[in-house]
Amino acid sequence: xxxxxxxxxxxxxxxxxxxxxxxxxxxxxxxxxxxxxxxxxxxxxxxxxxxxxxxxxxxxxxxxxxxxxxxxxxxxxxxxxxxxxxxxxxxxxxxxxxxxxxxxxxxxxxxxxxxxxxxxxx
Length: 122
Prior knowledge:
Oligomer: single chain
Largest sheet: 6 strands, antiparallel
Order of helices and strands: EEHEHEEHE
Number of strands: 6
Shape: globular
Strand content: 15-25%
């Protein structure tokens, strides 16, 4: 195991925009829209909770006035769905990482829904 390895027991943070398509208007649930890859993306942008605080992630990406929230999930649960979590540090976020597909189809709606169901608001 390399020093860069992200352990199964780590927690991963994800910014959830406040738009109705990203949070269900009826119950605030995290929707699968948050896990649709754009054509140029290789994975889902996240941050490691041990290196990036929810407040720092919100300051970097979010707009609490518009309803942005931060959600958290466990790496082991993400891997169990057929994804890997890999380091991808940014100059303004050394804890930045990506959730990348290994065996899962990231374009399948049921996979997107399963990822969304793993994340809980902090």
